[in-house]
Amino acid sequence: MQVLLLGGHGKVALHLTPLLLNRAWNVTSVVRNPDHEKEILALGQGRKGNLNVLISSLADVKSAADAQEILNKVMPDYVVWSAGAGGKGGPSNTIAIDQEAAKHFMTASFASTSVTKFLMISYLGSRKNQPPWMPDDQWAGVVRTNTEILPTYAKAKQEADEYMTALAYMRKREPAVTRPFQAINLRPGFLTDEPATRKVELGVTAKGRGSVTREDVAIVADLVLARDDVEGWIDLVNGEEGVEEAVERVAREKVDAVEGEDVEGMVKRFFS
Question: What is the model's pLDDT at position 204?
């Protein structure tokens, strides 16, 4: 498999890259800064798959055609969005990358003849409605984060997530579609740099402000990418369930944390 990893120098992506290579998959890691190329290429030493670095700024992706140019260079089977402005460049840069560039890559990927999976690494609080499983005090923390602490980031992530959800909804209703496509929205809580615990709470979680290690996020991303039966919104924090068992359960029960959101409203907003 050919994997296009967008945001390849991010901490989650740095953990994810060797996991994908160990599956004998080939990875093209997209980074903006050429100074990071050597560090990333070192992750490929001794792995089963091949690793390439593509120097390209996601801030320059202004259209689906721009995104398509990158897809044409790599011809990926899977696309992983692990990118973000990271608060740099002010609100306009956050909107340009976390929202607009992400949407352009989704548009191009869903229309591609080669891409069969798109995994978006989003965040737990990226939703507009209180889910039925989340207590009021936890939801109040999500609302405060989205409105007072990280309002631009929250707006950008919600827009991208809803667009992806609407695209997936529309694609399933196309009568001529024969090629499978998995749209996976992995939604970790507050990210930490501790070593992986391999213990998670996955699918839905009452912990609106829970945390998870970046390494555990990468492990879950790798596991769900390797399956053909996982899609939709998947919330993730550290917990008590073994990570392999948790992924198996989410797949078996077809868990989708989009419950409580207005999916038809998303479709109407983007496509009517």
Answer: 97
Which CATH number belongs to the domain containing residue 206 in this structure?
Answer: 3.40.50.720
Q: Which domain holds residue 218?
A: 2-271
Structure confidence by residue, pLDDT tens digits, 144-162: 999 999 999 999 999 999 9
Neighbours of 54 (CB within 10 A): 16
| 15, 151, 190, 237 from 213: Cα distances, Å | 11, 23, 8, 8
In sequence order, what are the beta bridge partners of 238? 200
Helical segments of the chain, H only: 11-21, 37-41, 64-74, 90-94, 102-111, 136-144, 151-172, 214-225, 243-253, 263-271
Tens digit of pLDDT for each residue in 21-37? Answer: 999 999 999 999 999 99
Nearest to 17 by CA among 266, 262, 218, 157: 218
For 65-131, the three-class secondary structure string (H helix, E strand, C coil) is HHHHHHHHHHCCCEEEECCCCCCCCHHHHHHHHHHHHHHHHHHHHHHCCCCCEEEEECCCCCCCCCC
User: How far is it, in rounded angstroms, from Cα 218 to Cα 146?
Assistant: 24
Question: What is the count of structural domains for the chain?
Answer: 1
